[in-house]
């Protein structure tokens, strides 16, 4: 399934392997889901996940970024997102989702208010895991 994963979900999943964010990270690592991204999103992943204050293991970050690059779909030329969002840095996530018919999965629904989403489906990690019907970690 194609999915645009907000950076906060990856951070949460790397910090704790339990729960929906951890499942999403494992699903990305094994290619069970297809992360969809553009260069702005990929750069944000790299920048945020490598912040020393998060204390993430560099090898784990490397593995996740390699999985995104290997199993993911890079989008080039998605139309800019003009709808009002509290944080304009979140616009690429909606633009890429709209361009590919993907859902956005985020731990911060308030960053994607209904008026700013248009017809893009935005789900919490729990809603996404429930949607794909996999309560257990994907097979490695």
Describe this structure in words.
- Helices cover 48% and strands 11% of the residues.
- Helix 6 (114-117) links the parallel strand 4 and strand 5.
- It starts with a strand and ends in an 8-residue tail after the last helix.
- With 140 residues, it is α/β, with parallel strands linked by helices.
- It has seven helices and five strands; from the N terminus they run E-H-H-E-H-H-E-H-E-H-E-H.
- It has a five-stranded parallel beta sheet, with helices on both faces.
What is the topology, as strand order, of the major beta sheet?
3-2-1-4-5
Mean pLDDT: 92
Q: How many extended strands?
A: 5
Terminal CA distance: 16 Å
Low-confidence stretches: none
CATH class: Alpha Beta
How many helical stretches?
7
The biggest beta sheet reads: 5 strands, parallel
- Content-based structural category: alpha/beta
Run of helices and strands: EHHEHHEHEHEH
- Please name the fourth-level CATH homologous superfamily: 5'-nuclease
Q: What is the total domain count?
A: 1
- Using only C-alpha atoms, the radius of gyration works out to 14 Å
Shape descriptor reads globular
Q: How does CATH name the architecture? A: 3-Layer(aba) Sandwich
Which terms summarize this structure?
alpha/beta; Rossmann fold; 140 residues; globular
What are the SSEs and their pairings?
Elements: E1 2-5, H1 7-15, H2 19-29, E2 34-37, H3 39-49, H4 58-71, E3 73-74, H5 91-100, E4 103-105, H6 114-117, E5 122-123, H7 125-132
Helix pairs in contact: 1-2, 2-7
